[in-house]
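Students often ask why inverse folding is considered easier than folding. One informal answer: many sequences map to the same fold, so there is more than one right answer. In these notes we will look at a single instance of the problem. The structure comes first.
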C-alpha cells in the first residue's frame, strides 16, 4: 500500500434546522458583523433574508452581496471584497451553491492581502490566514465547504483559474437539508451529477487512497440511490439529506484524491461558453467513462452498482456498461446529451484542449491523456 496523508481541520454541523447554529459559530469566531455572499436567486426567494434574520436575532449585524453569477469572474470577486470593506464586516458567510462559496474564498484573500485574484493562481500562493468564512451550502453538488479550492473565471483569457490553499478552508460549515428543498429541478439535476462526478473521479483517481476511497464510495452509494428521487421532488427530506451528505463526502474525497479528465475538460467549456459547471460535467462524463474503461481494474463495477436501477451481477458486467448507464441517468434527469445543444462550437476545441491540459487533474486520470486525446473526446461529446 502506498503512503498517504489526510486531515479534516474543520467544524461541520449537519442536520435539519442547523442554520440556527450560525450565530453560535460566529460567536466562537468572536465576530460581530457579517458579509453574506450569495446570489440573486436566493435573495429573490427570501433565503438571504432568512440567513440575515438568524444572525440579527442573536445581535449580529450583517450586510449582503448578492451579485454572484454562475461561473463567477474576477470582477465579481473584487466587488465582493469592496463590499466587505465598505460594510466594515469582520467575517464572511458564504451562502449558496458553488459560485458564492468560490467568490467568498477568493474575496477573503483580497480582503486580507490585496491585489487581483489572478496573482494567487495555482497552489499555495496565499501567504497566510484569510478572513474567517462560515460556509452554508444551499445545493447538493460542489462540496466546496470542505475543499481548499476556489475556481474563478478570468474573462480576459476565457479561462477558469484555480486557487488552492488550505487557508481557504472555511472555519465552519453548516449543512441544513431544509436549505436545498427550494432548488429548481434543473439546478438540482446538474448539481447532483456534479457531486456524483466528484465521487466517481476521486474513486478512480491515481491519487486515491483507502481514506479517499472510503468517502468516495459512501458518496457514490448515497448519491446513486437518492439523486433521481431528489430531482423528482426536492422536498423529499430523506433524499435531500442523503444528497447533501453525499456531496459533503464527495468533497472530502476529491480534496484528497483530486479528480480527472471530466473536470479538466469541463472548465474550458464553462469558461468559453458559460455553460453551467454541473451540466458540462454531466455531458462529458459518459464519454470520459468510455475512454477510461480500458484502465479499469474492478472499480467500474462498484460505481455501476451504485448508479444502476437494476444492476447486473458482476460476472455479467463489462466496463462499457458504465458509460451506457451514465447516459441513461442524464436522460432521466433531463440533461442535454451533447455539447452542441448547450452552445459549444467545435472550432474552439483546440484552444479548449490546450487549457484542459494545464489542469493538474489530467495527471491523476486513470488513463494517460494527451492533447489529441482531449480534442477527440470533445468531438465525441459534441
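Output (designed amino acids):
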Amino acid at each position: 500500500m502506498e503512503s498517504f496523508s489526510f486531515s479534516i481541520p474543520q467544524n461541520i454541523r449537519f442536520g435539519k434546522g442547523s442554520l440556527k447554529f450560525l450565530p453560535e459559530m460566529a460567536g466562537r469566531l468572536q465576530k460581530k458583523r457579517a458579509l453574506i455572499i450569495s446570489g440573486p436567486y436566493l435573495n429573490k426567494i427570501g433565503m438571504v433574508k432568512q440567513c440575515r434574520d438568524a444572525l440579527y436575532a442573536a445581535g449580529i449585524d450583517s450586510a449582503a452581496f448578492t451579485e454572484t453569477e454562475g461561473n463567477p469572474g474576477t470582477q465579481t470577486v473584487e466587488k465582493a471584497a469592496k463590499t466587505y470593506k465598505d460594510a466594515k464586516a469582520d467575517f464572511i458567510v458564504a451562502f449558496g451553491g458553488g459560485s458564492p462559496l468560490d467568490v467568498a474564498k477568493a474575496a477573503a484573500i483580497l480582503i486580507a492581502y490585496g491585489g487581483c485574484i489572478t496573482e494567487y493562481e495555482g497552489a499555495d500562493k496565499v501567504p497566510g490566514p484569510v478572513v474567517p468564512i462560515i460556509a452554508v451550502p444551499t445545493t447538493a453538488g460542489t462540496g466546496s465547504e470542505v475543499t481548499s479550492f476556489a475556481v474563478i473565471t478570468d474573462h480576459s483569457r476565457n479561462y477558469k483559474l484555480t486557487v488552492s490553499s488550505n487557508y481557504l478552508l472555511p472555519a465552519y460549515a453548516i449543512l441544513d437539508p431544509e436549505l436545498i428543498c427550494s432548488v429548481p429541478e434543473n439546478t438540482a439535476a446538474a448539481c447532483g451529477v456534479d457531486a456524483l462526478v466528484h465521487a466517481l473521479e476521486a474513486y478512480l483517481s491515481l491519487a486515491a487512497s483507502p481514506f479517499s476511497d472510503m468517502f468516495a464510495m459512501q458518496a457514490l452509494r448515497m448519491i446513486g440511490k437518492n439523486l433521481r428521487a431528489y430531482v423528482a421532488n426536492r422536498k423529499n427530506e430523506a433524499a435531500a439529506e442523503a444528497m447533501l451528505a453525499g456531496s459533503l463526502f464527495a468533497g472530502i474525497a476529491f480534496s484528497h484524491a483530486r479528480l480527472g479528465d471530466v473536470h479538466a475538460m469541463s472548465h474550458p467549456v464553462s469558461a468559453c461558453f458559460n455553460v453551467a459547471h454541473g451540466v458540462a460535467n454531466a455531458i462529458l462524463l459518459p464519454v470520459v467513462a468510455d475512454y477510461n474503461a480500458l484502465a479499469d481494474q474492478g472499480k467500474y463495477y462498484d460505481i455501476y452498482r451504485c448508479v444502476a436501477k437494476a444492476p447486473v451481477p458482476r460476472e455479467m458486467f463489462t466496463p462499457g456498461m458504465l458509460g451506457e448507464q451514465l447516459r441513461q441517468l442524464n436522460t432521466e434527469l433531463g440533461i442535454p446529451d451533447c455539447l452542441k445543444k448547450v452552445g459549444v462550437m467545435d472550432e474552439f476545441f483546440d484552444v479548449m484542449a490546450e487549457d484542459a491540459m494545464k489542469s493538474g487533474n489530467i495527471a491523476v486520470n486513470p488513463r494517460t491523456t494527451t492533447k489529441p486525446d482531449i480534442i477527440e473526446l470533445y468531438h465525441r461529446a459534441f
